[in-house]
Amino acid sequence: MSRILVTGGAGFIGSHIVDAYIEAGHEVMVLDNFHAGVRENLNAAAALVELDIRSPELEVVMREFRPEVVNHLAAQIDVRLSVEDPMFDADVNIIGGINLLENCIKVETRKFIFASTGGAIYGEPKTLPADEQTEPNPKCHYATSKLGFEHYIKLYKALYGMNYTILRYPNVYGPRQRPDGEAGVCSILTGIMLQGKTPTLYGHGTPLRDYVYAGDIARANVLALDHGDGTCVNTGSGRGVSVRELFDTLKDIIGFEGEPDLQPLRPGEIDQIYITGDRAKEVLGWEPQVSLREGLARTVAHIRSAAA
Ligand SMILES: NC(=O)c1ccc[n+]([C@@H]2O[C@H](COP(=O)([O-])OP(=O)(O)OC[C@H]3O[C@@H](n4cnc5c(N)ncnc54)[C@H](O)[C@@H]3O)[C@@H](O)[C@H]2O)c1
Fold this sequence. Notes:
Elements: E1 3-7, H1 12-23, E2 27-32, E3 47-50, H2 58-65, E4 69-72, H3 79-84, H4 86-106, E5 111-117, H5 141-160, E6 163-169, E7 171-173, H6 185-194, E8 200-202, E9 208-209, E10 211-213, H7 214-223, E11 231-234, E12 241-242, H8 243-254, E13 261-263, H9 278-284, H10 292-307
Parallel strand pairs: 1-2, 1-4, 2-3, 4-5, 5-6, 6-11, 7-10, 8-13
Antiparallel strand pairs: 9-12
Helix pairs in contact: 1-7, 2-4, 4-5, 6-8, 6-10, 8-10
The chain binds nicotinamide-adenine-dinucleotide.
């Protein structure tokens, strides 16, 4: 049993990770400023601190709870906002992260697990699926701040011996995802189709993404407690799924009868990105278990019940 601090634990992915840690018998504290977090996501068995990761009060919280593991998900995740307001993006994703790392050293945290992004930092690689050797090529401030912070984590290992695992997520989807995030396309399409409206598919529906179910990502985070030390791991499926395939699957699940509005890709949007899961299998013993159809069916059921 470990004492684990989960920053961003009231958010979409963080709340699934908190549930998985509690289920596995760990003691969990959620730290979230509710910038995008939702109280209904909170697991009743987890302690809660409502605080910004940039706050000087973080030291008091960390000294009291003395987390053995910190799983860091709190972030500015909006790609467009990162381009419009790069100072805010860096303030949360880099300065806030450094505040956390500094306090991890003070309280001798054993391990730091970081939610990085394989969907954004590789840009538009020539060879797909992108593996961990693929040279990062960020196309926006968000991807740059996430990649930059990875280097800080490695620095804290080199300077202070702090153990870590960096997980580079693909497009994570599932219940509780907000429709305005980095990869909220499943929730966005579902919401629009459930209302009987016409969804827009950018890039005429051809762009490829790697969709992995949130529960599978949560399991990778449980495995990372004891595996994958000092390494960076893609948690992908290795499969690129077109937006059209996503639409068609949702159409079938929902019983939607309309057709989508096909539009060109918006400026700055990546056309194709999907990432490997081979190293994750090797070092974490992880691979995705929930099929796209099953995961989408669960997502639709969740959005339907929330709307009822
Ligand atoms: N959703 C994806 O597909 C995806 C893909 C790759 C990486 N990620 C990473 O996973 C993490 C979680 O993403 P998500 O989709 O669950 O987003 P989310 O917005 O649902 O969760 C982020 C949480 O962090 C909290 N937060 C934001 N700023 C904070 C601050 N300054 N102090 C304290 N709390 C703060 C928010 O209130 C929210 O609860 C992020 O680090 C994101 O970069 C997500």
